[in-house]
Amino acid sequence: VQELVTLLKEAFGAERRLKSLSPEERRKRRQTEVKPLVDRYFELAAEYRGKDRTPKNRAISYGLDEVSHYLLFLEDGNVPMTNNAAERTVRKVKMVKNASMFSVSEGGAGDTAVMLSVVQTAVLNGLNPMRYMEYVLTNYKDLSDPEKLGDFLPYSAKLPESVRLTEGEKKAMEKERKETERGNGKEPGAE
Description:
about 65% helix
């Protein structure tokens, strides 16, 4: 099993080196740098299938059953090697669900979901959620005027620079994102 872990580490390392390339160049280089490692990984994993019912071997068997899904990234430079981004999104949806459980009414739960959606959209558009919400609540006086609503949406070019994330905030968020992707600093297979 240790050889499987080593192959995964090598494949992830190769993928990290390709991160800055264009999708087409990444796809080409994956074929020569990552694919041999992945092929060897699944070849070796097949030897472990069914040897016993330990959790590790069950995980290996599951991975072999889903191999066609895992290999999509080798054919398209836009497809990430992992689904970590999707996992982070699902985690946020779970957070909304949990927050909504404390709402007194169904309407309150809906309002919580809308608010968290607005906050996440602000972050995705490079805004500081707290400063953005403060700006909207302070400056958007006439909620019945749909003409002005567009100026306050998170993707509006008319928003002031003061609500945008600073370089320091962007770096901190990027660091947090990378730590989450790595499982808080653990390499694949680390105990």
